[in-house]
Specification:
The complex is a heterodimer of chains A (187) and B (389). Chain A contains seven helices and one strand, in the order E-H-H-H-H-H-H-H. By secondary structure, chain A is mainly α. Chain A has a domain of 118 residues: Four Helix Bundle (Hemerythrin (Met), subunit A) (Up-down Bundle). Chain A starts with 7 loop residues before the first strand and ends with a helix. Chain B has two domains: 220 residues, Quinone Oxidoreductase, Chain A, domain 1 (Alpha-Beta Complex), CATH 3.90.180.10; 162 residues, NAD(P)-binding Rossmann-like Domain (Rossmann fold, 3-Layer(aba) Sandwich), CATH 3.40.50.720. In chain B, 29% of the residues lie in helices and 21% in strands. Classes of the chains: A mainly alpha (187), B alpha/beta (389). At the A-B interface, strand 1 of A face strand 1, strand 2, helix 6, helix 7 and helix 12 of B.
């Protein structure tokens, strides 16, 4: 018997735009981090900042950690931490802006790039927060949802006719005092 | 037909998929009238359960009308209204004959995969990864029910979907969690988690006559529902769980502890939760065990830990010394649904309990994906979502 239809793509889905953006940022962050960690010299050379390889590697580590966080089931804190990271990157790039640096132009490009990333991170963090936050200002009162038709006090022990299966009993019963005679009766 | 399908972490979609067909003589096809989102679905949604594949139909708490039955199925006929237990049971193997339905030896068709992972496989489950058989789930318009001649609960006339739907999962789950505590009239039962399962643990513990029922969570509206059911509540955001439990038990600890939280435990003000988060993020640990640790620590010596909360893989830093030296009993497992449903159906009919108290949202199946998010983030006062295909 066939009831209806055939396979097709989806009409509604649980991932919102901000969730997808966070995924993108996460992968970007991991990729960027790996690059900084393993090829720091390429960067320092292009930016005229030779000798700062350790700093670049540290930034790489930070990017990888925040990237993993952004790809987790709770990306918001990681994306917020990236906003702070972007500010650190800008601070780290600033010394490269001195006039003697022959690669000053590249540093400016890099700073623009970081600024754009920062804007994306900020937008994403705010959107994620809005989409996923628990609205603690709202109050829902479920104090009338006991599930019982009568007062709770009346329902106390109402199912004491229930027999706990033998393999689920807490032998020896914890409430019973131990006496050898009782024990033999129990086992 | 339309169904909710898993496509990756936090990615559930309302898709069109092929209709199910009878594959075996004991099968039945049902047209789903109501289904629900369960806390266990969150573990799939957050991708903590391995062996999910893109396009898998999810959902394991559902009911509906029988549309078609296989040739060997003598128990059901077209038009029957049934609730489907989420643990698929053959009813004939050694475990089923003992009532251990959730470890049925025959219903998991990917047994060898599960044997490798767990040593020995459990039963087949609907919509819950390929480790449990890779069966299409019930958040769909139609479902194929394997071993349907045994895997069903017939609904008597006069009961609404909302009253009986949860017999497929969370009501018997809460009941089994309480039953395996062997509750005595002198017992304090402490329940971690005021989600739907925790709520049914509370009602069950009250019905079974516990002296005192305590519920721990940090979501105010869930705690208010817990209180309505007869629990004393502890908000772990604003109070110390250990201190309050000591106070309420004259320093001796609760005799019975129930973990209705599982592998995605949250924690505030605790070092071990930071540890878990970090290890989980870098895949050195799959499950967050904060609640387990807390239970082992506070439970009264010779007490019982009952664990309906789902765990998927490996946990870390379990205080085995405390567990062993205190002589605690641990009881856990997926629920042996069919073992309890006849009795619970009677209790519903007799008016002991109306399980619909827990429903806060009823929407169309097409809104399911968004409701996964709402339920996960506990937005809009969400406690339990029912979907209508
Ligand atoms: N054994 C079974 O057969 C079975 C069946 C159904 C559900 N489950 C499991 O039961 C668990 C609960 O299911 P649910 O539907 O109620 O889900 P849920 O996610 O709605 O409920 C979990 C609750 O635990 C609370 N919580 C989180 N961390 C906590 C902590 N540290 N201390 C106390 N409370 C904490 C959350 O705020 C939430 O209210 C899940 O793990 C689910 O997979 C097991
Ligand atoms: Zn479930
Ligand atoms: Zn079986």
């Amino acid at each position: 018997m066939s009831y209806s239809g055939k396979t097709s793509s989806s009409m509604s889905q649980s991932l919102g735009t901000s969730d997808k953006l966070a995924r993108g940022i996460g992968w970007f962050s991991v990729g960027m981090g790996l690059f900084e960690l393993f090829a720091p010299r390429t960067l320092t050379h292009a930016l005229g900042m030779e000798g700062k390889e350790t700093l670049v590697r540290a930034c790489g580590m930070r990017q990888i950690i925040s990237g993993i966080g952004a790809l987790s089931d709770n990306p918001t804190p990681a994306i917020w931490s990236r906003v702070g990271g972007d500010a650190l990157d800008i601070a780290a790039l600033t010394p490269g802006l001195r006039d003697e640096n022959p690669q000053k132009h590249n540093v400016e490009l890099a700073m623009t790039f970081v600024a754009v990333t920062c804007a994306a991170d900020l937008y994403c963090a705010q959107a994620l927060h809005k989409r996923h936050k628990y609205p603690s200002s709202m109050v829902y009162d479920y104090s009338d949802r006991s599930g019982f038709y009568r007062l709770v006090a009346d329902m106390h022990g109402a199912a004491s006719d229930f027999e706990v299966p033998a393999n689920m009993r807490a032998y020896p019963p914890m409430w019973a005092e131990f006496t050898p005679e009782k024990e033999s009766g129990l086992l | 037909m339309k169904a909710l399908c898993w496509h990756g972490k936090n990615d559930i979609r309302y898709d069109t998929v092929p209709d199910p067909e009878i594959e075996h003589g004991r099968d039945a096809i049902i047209k789903v009238s109501s289904c629900a989102i369960c806390g266990s679905d969150m573990h799939l949604y957050d991708h903590f359960i391995p062996t999910m594949e893109k396009g898998d139909v999810v959902g394991h708490e559902f009911m509906g009308e029988v549309m078609e039955v296989g040739a060997e199925n003598k128990e059901l006929k077209v038009g029957d209204r049934i609730v489907v237990p989420f643990t698929i049971t053959c009813g004939e193997c050694e475990q089923c004959r003992r009532g251990n339905f959730s470890v049925c030896e025959r219903s998991n068709r990917n047994k060898s995969l599960a044997d490798k992972m767990f040593g020995h496989a459990g039963a087949g489950l609907f919509g819950y990864s390929h480790l449990t058989g890779g069966y299409a789930g019930g958040q769909a318009e139609y479902v194929r029910v394997p071993f349907a001649d045994k895997t069903h609960v017939k609904v008597p006339e006069g009961l609404t979907d909302e009253q009986v739907l949860f017999l497929g999962d969370i009501f018997p789950t809460g009941w089994q969690a309480a039953a395996q505590c062997d509750i005595q009239p002198t017992d304090t039962v402490a329940i971690w988690g005021a989600g739907p399962v925790g709520q049914f643990c509370i009602r069950s513990a009250v019905l079974l006559g516990a002296r005192q029922v305590i519920c721990i969570d940090n979501v105010p509206e869930r705690l208010s529902m817990a209180e309505a059911g007869g629990a004393i509540t502890i908000n772990f955001d604003s109070e110390s769980v250990l201190e309050r439990l000591q106070e309420l038990t004259h320093g001796k600890g609760p005799e019975k502890c129930i973990d209705a939280v599982g592998l995605e435990a949250h924690a505030t003000r605790s070092l071990d939760s930071v540890y878990d988060r970090v290890k989980q993020a870098v895949m050195l640990e799959s499950d967050r065990a904060h609640v387990l640790r807390e239970m082992i620590y506070v439970c009264r010596p010779a007490g019982v830990l009952s664990i309906p909360g789902v765990y998927g893989g490996l946990v870390d830093k379990i205080p085995m010394g405390a567990l062993m030296n205190k002589g605690l009993t641990v009881r856990t497992g997926q629920t042996h649904v069919k073992r309890w449903t006849d009795d619970l159906m009677n209790r519903i009919q007799e008016g002991q309990i109306d399980p619909s108290f827990v429903i806060t949202h009823t929407v169309g199946l097409d809104q399911g994906p968004e409701m996964y998010k709402t339920f996960r983030e506990k937005q809009d006062g969400c406690v339990k979502v029912v979907l209508k295909p």
